[in-house]
Amino acid sequence: MSAVILFSGGGRRNPSYSLTVTTIQGVPGGVINPVETPPTPTTTPVGTAPASAPPPVSQAPVSQAAQVTAWYASVGKVGIATLTSDIATVAADDHRDGMGEDLQADCVQLDNDTTAMQSDPAIPNASAQLSWSSALTTLHQGWWNCNGGFSDNSTSEVGSAVAEIESAGPLLTATRQRIVAVR
Question: Residue 50: how many CA atoms within 13 Å on its side-chain side?
Answer without folding.
Answer: 2
